[in-house]
């Protein structure tokens, strides 16, 4: 993902930050795993550096190698089980995600804000046979790319959102549709309508609608989204889906406070 790359740091990135880049990249590969070369490419790190970090992480149990492909290791599972007591919100959201999928026939997801990215925590497939297959549990996107990240970005404090938009270049990986000017326009539309729309900008023909979930301070920290094919996301239906997402996001926010 673009926001996890080390490019442009002029060698100033710390070892801890490099480890974080590597772990997030391996995690984004999900069950399929990834190669050393792919980790180097996706993080922007030199291949020898990526290999050394992966080897050291494997020695500590944080990653594992199976048939030449790296995956997250057992030590992360143990640490994650401890952290889940504080950070896991999926139990409170799964019934809402499932209800959205059942009511709409589309695939529904919960994505959480993590730094300058969103990570998908939970999903439920809808009954409609054609699906977008863009989102899955564990996948990460920079803010402003998928509909969930756009919904969160648009509802961050204006100075924080402006700083992100001014310092982040998504065009290298995601193309001119994610230029700063285009992002600012979509942010304004999201602020006006309350919900975000991704008109097939990640994968052509795959649309998404999302609404932010707020914590007790009024800060967006996650988002509910629906994804599907363009024929299902008509101009008439998108506002209906948007209002439904806003309603469920409000309910989830109240539940988690």
UniProtKB/TrEMBL annotation:
SUPFAM superfamilies xref list: GAF domain-like, Winged helix' DNA-binding domain
InterPro entries for the chain: GAF-like_dom_sf, HTH_MetabolicPath_Reg, Tscrpt_reg_IclR_C, Tscrpt_reg_IclR_N, WH-like_DNA-bd_sf, WH_DNA-bd_sf
Domain HTH iclR-type: 13-74
Keyword Transcription attributed: yes
Transcription in keyword set: yes
Domain IclR-ED: 75-257
SMART domains hit by this protein: HTH_ICLR
Keywords: DNA-binding, Transcription, Transcription regulation
Protein name from the UniProt record: IclR family transcriptional regulator
Organism: Pseudonocardia ailaonensis
Lineage: Bacteria, Bacillati, Actinomycetota, Actinomycetes, Pseudonocardiales
